[in-house]
Design brief:
Helix content: 40-55%
Order of helices and strands: HHHHHHHHHEEHEHEEH
Number of helices: 12
Strand content: 5-15%
Radius of gyration: 25 Å
Shape: elongated
Number of strands: 5
Largest sheet: 5 strands, mixed
Distance between the termini: 68 Å
Length: 251
C-alpha cells in the first residue's frame, strides 16, 4: 500500500511538472516508503529474523545513492557477490567495485560480517570436547577451508579437553605464515590452558604437511613440554580434507 502511494505521488509530480521522462524521476527513496515498512522500524517491530539479508545490510548503510535507496543498494551488493559467505571473503577494495559502495560502507559491511563470524565461532566452540582430531576439524573446517590466505590457530583446552578458545596466532599470504613457539604458547599460558592443538590451513586445498610444517611441529612439542602444557596435535586443513600429525605418527 505504501509503495502504491509512493508511485502515485511520483506520477502526479511528473504530470504537474510536464516532464516526459517518468523513469528518470522515478527513484524511490526510503522517505517514499511508509515508516512502518522501513527496515529499521520493521526490525524494531518484528525482530531481526523477519528481515531479508538486504534489509539488514540497508540498516548498516543508513542511506543509499541518488539512484538507489538503501535496500536497493544492498540488493545490488548481494547480487554482485552471490552469497553472504562470498561477501564476507571479499576485500574492502572488492566491495568498493559496486557502484554506490564507498570506503565507509565497505568497512561497515566487513565489521558486521566479522562480528557474525565470531559469534558463530563462539557458539561452535562453547562446550566442545576434543576426543579425536575430527572434533577439531569439525570445529574449524567451515572457516578455514574457504580461506584464501594461511591462518595459524591455537586451540586451547582445559584439563578435561574442553575447548577454552580458538586463538588466531598469525595470518599470512599464499606462501604461508610464520608461527613461532613463543607466539603460539604465550596466550595459552595467559588463559591457563592445560593442553593445546595447533591448526593451520593450506589455501591450495592440499593438506599434506610440508617439511616446514613438520619442523615447526617438533619445535612446538619441545616448547610446550618445557612449560608444562600438553601438545596434543598439529592439524592441517585443506578443502574438505585434513591431516593430523598425531594420527600420522609425526609427533
Amino acid at each position: 500500500e505504501s509503495l502504491k502511494r509512493a508511485i502515485g505521488t511520483r506520477l502526479q509530480r511528473n504530470d504537474e511538472s510536464g516532464m516526459n521522462d517518468i523513469q528518470a524521476d522515478f527513484k524511490l527513496s526510503m522517505r517514499d516508503v511508509c515508516e512502518e515498512e522501513r527496515p529499521r522500524e520493521r526490525l524494531a517491530r518484528l525482530g531481526a529474523d523477519a528481515l531479508r539479508d538486504a534489509e539488514l545490510l540497508a540498516i548498516l548503510f543508513r542511506s543509499g545513492t541518488s539512484k538507489l535507496n538503501a535496500v536497493a543498494l544492498a540488493d545490488q551488493v548481494l547480487k554482485q557477490f552471490g552469497t553472504l559467505q562470498r561477501l564476507s571473503q571479499a576485500s574492502i577494495e572488492e566491495m568498493q567495485q559496486v557502484e554506490g559502495i564507498g570506503a565507509v560502507k565497505a568497512v561497515e559491511i566487513k565489521a558486521a560480517l566479522e562480528l557474525g563470524r565470531r559469534l558463530a565461532n563462539y557458539k561452535r566452540v562453547r562446550n566442545t570436547r576434543v576426543s579425536v582430531s575430527k572434533d577439531v576439524v569439525d570445529l574449524l573446517m567451515p572457516d578455514l577451508r574457504a580461506c584464501e590466505t594461511e591462518r595459524f590457530i591455537c586451540v586451547e583446552l582445559n584439563t578435561k579437553n574442553y575447548v577454552i578458545k580458538c586463538e588466531t596466532i598469525s595470518q599470512g599470504g599464499m606462501d604461508g605464515t610464520a608461527a613461532m613457539p613463543r607466539d603460539v604458547l604465550r596466550q595459552a599460558v595467559r588463559d591457563g590452558a592445560s593442553a593445546v592443538i595447533v591448526v593451520h590451513n593450506h589455501p591450495s586445498g592440499d593438506p599434506e604437511p610440508s617439511e616446514a610444517d613438520i619442523v615447526i611441529t617438533r619445535r612446538l612439542v619441545q616448547a610446550a613440554d618445557l612449560i608444562g602444557i600438553r601438545f596434543l596435535d598439529h592439524i592441517i586443513i585443506g578443502d574438505g580434507r585434513h591431516v593430523s600429525m598425531k594420527d600420522r605418527g609425526l609427533l
